[in-house]
Design goal:
It is a single chain. The protein has 14 helices and 9 strands. By secondary structure, it is α/β, with parallel strands linked by helices. Strands 7-2-1-8-9 form a 5-stranded parallel beta sheet. The protein has a 4-stranded antiparallel beta sheet with strand order 4-5-3-6.
Length: 314
């Protein structure tokens, strides 16, 4: 039976994440301590205690989610009862792809965390310079969303950028175009148009300066040759083959759509039967229910879920 580890992206953060696990497992606490040392401030305390306004910023939420996901992964990898749980393939939604690369062993914890920190800073800087927004569109298929964007775009930027699951596609672009999209929702039969609490128009060309900054950071990052664990790329739903592909994929990810639904459909087609979502929240667990109702994702996001896992494996 093939197993996949899935890792959440930005938006999964919540004040208190990782605290119960760090309190219960020294292995997890050490990951947060290590993260604090690498990035030069107390990231752990922001995860554990907030404030939410600080945790929710692009510059903090990205390293915070990565560190929390890595801490939970460390527990699964090191405590005797769960050491036998391993992945044949890893996948992560946007930011989560960095955790997937770390989990697959192609990038070190330190290098991945530094990259994630620089990515968050670069995305925030690009957002500050461009005045963008994102809106989740519930209830339209891909073709209809294309028509919807074409009408709402006018002379601005508006693209479909997150293909998360059937009936849920996120559009991203300039603030005026996103406002027009919200106003056109009823005309197109949109069930719900939900503005997202994000800093800017992620995954569009409005993030070009962030992609350039990330490309510079990646020049200094060592990415190892791929091991037995496969990693699927957000931008094309194909498995990475060589280290250079990974660098290109991470850069392109900032200005191109995230094909999460296609990634999951590819894993299912390739015989993956067991899925673990590792990290804060239940976003990917929820998306899988919409992609294939028959698949149950084992969600490991807090101490209770680890205790339940221990009960199943002991």
């Amino acid at each position: 039976m093939k197993t996949a580890f899935l890792f959440p992206g930005q938006g999964a953060q919540v004040v208190g994440m990782g605290k119960d696990i760090a309190d219960a497992f020294p292995e997890a606490a050490r990951i947060f301590t290590k993260a604090n040392d690498i990035i030069g401030f107390d990231l752990g305390s922001i995860c554990f205690e907030g404030p939410a306004e600080k945790l929710n910023t692009t510059t903090i939420s990205q390293p915070a989610i990565f560190a929390t996901s890595a801490a939970i992964l460390e527990v699964i990898r090191t405590i005797p009862a769960t050491k036998g749980i391993s992945a044949d393939v890893t996948a992560g939604l946007s930011l989560g792809e960095y955790t997937a690369l770390y989990a697959a062993g192609v990038v070190s914890f330190e290098d991945a965390l530094i990259l994630v920190q620089k990515r968050g800073q670069a995305m925030q800087a690009a957002a500050d310079a461009t005045e963008g927004a994102m809106v989740s569109i519930i209830g339209l298929d891909e073709e209809k969303v294309g028509q919807f964007c074409a009408e709402a775009r006018e002379n601005d930027i508006l693209e479909a950028v997150n293909f998360n699951c059937p009936g849920q596609i996120v559009v991203s672009g300039s603030k005026p175009a996103c406002r027009r999209a919200e106003n056109l929702a009823e005309k197109y039969g949109v069930i719900k148009a939900v503005p997202l609490e994000v800093a800017g128009a992620f995954h569009t060309k409005m993030m070009s300066s962030a992609a350039d900054a990330l490309a510079e950071a990646l020049k200094k990052t060592r990415i190892s040759n791929l091991s037995d664990i496969k990693i699927i790329a957000n931008i094309n739903a194909r498995y990475y083959q060589i280290a250079e592909d990974i660098k290109k994929g991470l850069i392109n990810q900032l200005t191109n759509p995230i094909l999460w639904q296609k990634c999951m459909e590819r894993l299912l087609a390739d015989g993956v039967e067991k899925f673990y979502e590792i990290g804060p929240g239940r976003v990917l667990t929820g998306l899988m229910k919409r992609i294939d109702r028959k698949i149950k994702v084992i969600n490991i996001s807090n101490l209770q879920s680890i205790e339940e896992l221990l009960g199943k494996t002991s």
